[in-house]
Amino acid sequence: MFVCSCFGVTEEQVREHAAAGACTPRQIASSCRAGTDCGGCVRRIQALLGRGAGPRRAAVAAVAEAAPGERARTAAEALPRAGRAAA
Ligand code: FES
Is the CB of 40 under 6 A from ligand 1? Predict the structure, then answer.
């Protein structure tokens, strides 16, 4: 299903860009131009990113799940934990 009719970008393509590391509509736009013409698709892209499980979301989840004594202060600190959890 098309998310961005201006550039013919599908949900699947947005998910692929998210899996490759795009975390924001702006980063999706840099990857495939979706959202850069009329802007009518930006909320749909944002909704897709919110539901996904991209690298940043994994880091945020790792921060949320850390034991209180081990709580990471930033997502960057949690990234190695997220990698360990996935391994
Ligand atoms: S529908 Fe995506 S920029 Fe217009």
Answer: yes
Q: How far is the CA of 32 from the centre of ligand 1 (A)?
A: 11
Mutate to test the pocket of ligand 1, among 28, 37, 43 (most ligand atoms within 8 A of CB): 37
In this structure, whether the domain defined by 2-51 belongs to CATH 1.10.10.1100 is answered with: yes
Q: Can you give the pTM of this predicted structure?
A: 0.62
- State the Cα–Cα distance between residues 33 and 77, nearest whole angstrom: 31
pLDDT digits over 4-59, tens only? 999 999 999 999 999 999 999 999 999 999 999 999 999 999 999 986 545 565 66
Name every residue whose Cβ is closer than 8 Å to that of residue 26 and which is 6 or more positions away in sequence: none
Q: Position 31: which residue type?
A: S
